[in-house]
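Progress narrative, work stream C.
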Amino acid sequence: MIHFARIGTLLMFSMFAFAQETSVSFKTTEVKPGIYMLQGEGGFTGGNLGLLTGDDGVVLIDDSMQPYSKLMLEAIAKVTGDPIDFVINTHVHGDHVGGNSTLGAAGTTIVAHHNIRKRLIEDGITGANGQEKAPKDALPTLTFSEEVSFHLNGHEAYVFHVAKAHTDGDAVIHFRDADVIHTGDILFNSLFPFIDLDTGGTVEGYLAAQERILSLCTAQTVIMPGHGPVADRAALQAAHDMLKDARRRVMKLVDEGKTQEEIVALNPLADYHDEWNWGFITTERMTETLIRSLRK
């Protein structure tokens, strides 16, 4: 059985090793006044970051990988000289919570779904040597079950939990008045998604989470995905339609009684390969994830 979380650990740090030999930076895009997305360039730095700034305080969404904490803080300092008051974790993976210990030690309040704190305590945090014990400073100090809202800088940042989606602790952040949404890893823009079945994720929950976000979107909504460039409702709809159809194609073969090896050999997702395949979640791995999820 493929354990994607462990594969993800190896992939992240092999990418980090490669990035050490290249010029890595964070590209900062102001998507709406006072709201930014930070995305790694020149190497894999982790998931996309969201940033809310203003006189009332600074809120960061996710915090990259631990080796890039200094670079991340330097990029944020170019936007605001104020300290980071809150960081919201969208889920437990090390490429999104790797900077928790650095921020926590500096006095930032870490906010997350309670399953993230539970998993960090019980399973640890992704490090260069795999799963390592999470230091106290990396643990969320403010947790929620279903939702929490931030009212800062003239914005409402509505944070809500989507169950059994990418993991069992996913959060989506909706800046309601600004019409901006940070999806965490509920959207890999123009990439096959990583659905972590070993950490409580499910294909059904992932599709339901995307449907909930779609219900909040207008044609003008700006979407900050977990990975990939800034997106819009059409991009999220395309990702949702692809996954729904991919699930249907694989389900047909599972219902016919075919083995995993037979299904992979038939390559039911071939039509999506050129556009959606990438280094971590290849067409074959996406097929295997769908098979595992359906057989559960």
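Work stream C, second folded protein:
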Amino acid sequence: MDHQPVLADAVVELLLPALEHGGVFVDATLGRGGHALRILEAAPEATLVGIDRDPVALESSRANLAAHSERVRLVRDNFSELASVLERLGVAQVRGVLLDLGVSSPQLDEPHRGFSFRVPGPLDMRMDPLRDLSADTVVNGYAEPELRRVIHRYGEERFAGRIARAIVRARPVSDTAELAEIVREAIPAPTRRTGPHPARRTFQAIRIEVNDELGSLQKGLPAAVDALEPGGRVVVLAYHSLEDRIVKRFFVDQASGCVCPPSFPVCTCGAEAKLRILTRRPATPSAQEIEANPRASAAKLRAAERLEPASVAPLEEKRSA
């Protein structure tokens, strides 16, 4: 396997304590199986449920994990459907869940998938080729206000209005190379002379819209926590601020417990903390890893551990702040 998974050592270090005595772990965004292979090697008694919506990725991971095939079950699905996947497999609870978000390097490197602004390809960007919505629908079919909303919200692009107008004027846009040039020309020249490729944010935004990536994350995170046994761990790798913000807020909320006003002498809400946060600050790749794999530079890793349920009591005194 020539592709090196991002922050692989940190992922294994965080998941291994939950898996040292075996149990099921879920790689819910399996990709080519790089992280899963490292975990299977480090935890020889553990078994894997690998989920991915990309059939090409699943076939590659099947080959890459062949040495451990007796401990591996692969499922084609979106990680947002984690609960139903585990129910179909008859798995009640798991010891670990890994979410490695965003687009994979192999997907970026395959021009016919249409993810890259660097090489010509069709306006596709679907992680699941059976999905109805494609980049072509967004680029050539969305009304200008909706296209502007997508580019601004998911790309955090300050020139979203200019870019949306330029795309609408140029329709029909034929491929990724033409789209990248339209975006580049729409951005003021002084801005596009420095920094990353001018089309990067717009391509990111369209990809997120096509694959409903943030919606999947907002559904998949609670499903992952609900699937964990006490002591089980969830590890998430995010690659842009929108993803990382969702993960951070979710972990904080799940680790907070009681939400009664401070003036209440006793807890009446009944809310319990479900998680203990393991990474107060997100782990990031070293300079050496970034040099070897520049696409890892934006990665942020956060992890949390499922807590034992609190003992049931009608009212508990709130601890002083």
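The mean pLDDT is 93. No further action is required on this item.
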